[in-house]
Amino acid sequence: MGVHTLPINPLPRFLHTEDGAVAIIVSLLLTVLLGFVALGIDVAFLYRERAHLQSVSDLTAISAMAQPDNATQRADLVLSRNATHADAVDDMQMGRFLRNPEIDPEDRFIPLADGSPGINALRVVLQDDAALHFARIFTDDTHVELSRTAMATRTGAGSFSLDSHLVNLDLASLNQTLTQSFGVNASLTLGDINVLDTSDIDLGALLDALNAQSEDPSRNPAEILNQVTTAGDMIAALQSILPAGAASRLDGLAGAAGSTAFSVSDLVGGIDTDLGLTATDFLSEIDISALDVVKALVAAESAGQGLTLAADISVTGVISATNTLTMAEPPAQSGWIALGEEGVQLNRAAARLATEVTIEPSLVSNVLGGLGVNLQIAKVNLPIYTELAGSTATLTELGCNVTSPNGIAAEFSTAHTPLHPNNGTSVAALYLGELAAAGTGAIDPNNLDYADVIDLSVEISVPILGSLFPSIKLADVTVQAKSHVAVGTSMAETVSFTHAEVDAGATTKTFGSGSLLSSALSSLLSSENTDIRIKPGQEGLLPTSILNTLLQALPSGLANLAAPVDGLLDATLAGVGLELGAGELTLTGHHCEPIRLVN
After folding, report:
1. Which of 181, 238, 277, 542 shows its CA 20 to 30 Å from the CA of 74?
2. Membrane-spanning regions, if any (predicted)?
3. Is the pLDDT higher at 587 or at 26?
C-alpha cells in the first residue's frame, strides 16, 4: 500500500519556529551593549579629566596663595606645567576665610578686592573641555565642559609686647602694687616670684581653661578674647594648668583678687576673633610666664594709681628719696601682648615719676662759700617730676614666605606718643617745682609753680663783738625755684626682624634715642632754665646787696646737684624698665599657618 503525503505550507512553520532566536536577540542587544561600553569608556575618561582638573585647581590655588601679590603669574606657571591652557582660569578671587564654627560653611569665605587688608584666602575656578569619543553616537556634541573649584588659605600674624613699668619691678615694689590693687593678702614672697617667673604656659591653654569655666561657652573658641572675666577667675584658670607646687603659690592672690573685673584683652588682644580656630592656634604658640599673667592683672588694675616704689637706692649725696610712679589712663589696644595680622597696634600709656629727694646740704654750701656772709643750710629738697611719653608699635609687614634668611619676618612702625602740646614733639619732660592737682593727663608746663628747695640762715661776722657773738643771724629764708625742660623728638622709626633673627631667638630690639636723662637734668638745673627767688614775703629780711649776691650764686649751687639726682633717677627708672626717649619691642611670636585647602 502506498504512503499518502499531506501537502505542507512552509509559511506557518517558519512563523512558529524558534530556531536562531538567541543569535537574533544577541545581535539586537549587542548594539545596545556596545553603546554602554562606549559610554562607560567616555565616562571613565571624563572622571579622570575631572580629577586632573581638580588637582590642577588645587595646585594653582596653593601656589597662588604662597605669593598673593604674584597670584596671576604663579597660576599661569602651574597651568603651563600641567598641560592646561592659561585661559582655563574662569575666576580667581582673593578673599578672607574664617575658620569659625559659629559661621555657616557657605558664609566663611568673603570676597575682597585685590590689595585689600585682611586677605588670607584665594579661590580659583578652572574650566576645560574634555573630548567625547564613543559617546558621540548619542549626541552631536564633541566635548563636555568641566569646571572645578579650589580654595587655599593661609593667615599670618605676629605677637609682640612693649616695655612696661611693671616688667622689672623688684619684690618690694611689686608687692606694694599688689596690695594697693587687691589688698594685703595678695602679696608674694621672693620664692613665689621666682617659681612663677620660671613657670611657662601657653596662652592657648590658659584661655581654654578660662573658657571652660563659662556656663555657656561660644562655639567660636576665640570669642573668649572679647570677654570680661574676673581677676579671680583668671587666677583660677592659671592655677588649673600649673603644676601643683606652682599653683599653690597663687592661693592668696586668688582669694584677694576675687571679683575684680578683668578684660581678657588686657592680657592679649588685637586679632580678629572671627578667625576662630586660626586665632586659637596662634594663641597656643605664645609662651609667657605665670608671673606675666599676674603683672598683666596688676597693670590693668593700677592704671591711674600712684605706685609708691621701693626706696632702697643708695646714691652718694642723697639723704632720702620717695618715688611715686603714675601711669596715665591706657589708650585702646594696650594689652600685655598684642596678637594680630598686619595693621595690629599696641600702645603704652605715658608715665610720670614724682620724686621728692633730700640732698646733703654740703653739696650746696661748698659752692656758695666766699659770698662775704655765712650761710647755714638746713635743708635741700628737690621735687622733680619726670614725664615720659607713651609709645606705640604697629605691625606693618609680616613675611610668611621665606625666600632668604635675611628676608623680613616682621616689621614694625614705632613712635612715641606726644606729651602736652606745649611740650611740642618731645618724648620726655622734666619739671622742678610744684604741680597742683596734676591728675594723670599730660602735664601743661604753664601749670608749674615754684617749690621750696633750700632752707638757709644768713649770718654776718661781727668781729668787734668778740668771741662771745662772732656773728649775727640776719634771717632764716627759703629759696624757691622752678624749671622745665623738654627733651628729644618723637619720630617714626622702623624696627625689623629677619627670619634668621627669629630662628636665633634675637627678638628684642630698642627704638628711640635714649641716654637723655643726664643731659636733661643738667639742663633742668642750669641757670639758663631755672627761675630762683626768695619766698614771697621774705625778700625784705635781707639787705639788697646780700640778697642780690645770694640770688646770683644760687644757680651754681643747684647745678651742682645734677650728678646725685641723675644717679637716683637713673636707678629708679631702670628699676621699672623705663628709659627717657627709648622703648623696647619684643617679638613674642611669628605665626604663619601652613597653606591648606578648604571646602
Report:
1. 277
2. 20-47
3. 587
